[in-house]
Amino acid sequence: MTSKSIAAFPQQFYTGEWPLLLDLSAQPDVKVVRAHWEVNRWGRGTETPMFEFGVTMKEVPPEILRDATAEARTLA
């Protein structure tokens, strides 16, 4: 099995939840989704980075996916 990146989160400096909509409809050969992340310390303070990372996946209805894709195109 060969893996390649199909999505990436932009670098963030603030706490919060950062959703990412992943459209796999054009990639029917995808059978597995694997999350990979790397964390670097930045700024001042303790040298031990403090973070939490979690992944939650759920299927969304096709109409929501279409609406989100259309909105993303207007913002680009």
Walkthrough of the structure:
The mean pLDDT is 82. The chain is extended, with a radius of gyration of 16 Å. It is built from one helix and no strands.
> Count of helices?
1
Rounded mean pLDDT score: 82
Number of strands: 0
Q: CA-to-CA gap between the ends?
A: 33 Å
Which tags fit this structure?
single chain, 76 residues, mainly alpha, extended
List the SSEs and their pairings.
Elements: H1 62-75
Write a concise synopsis of the structure shown.
The protein is mainly α and 76 residues long. The protein has one helix spanning 62-75.
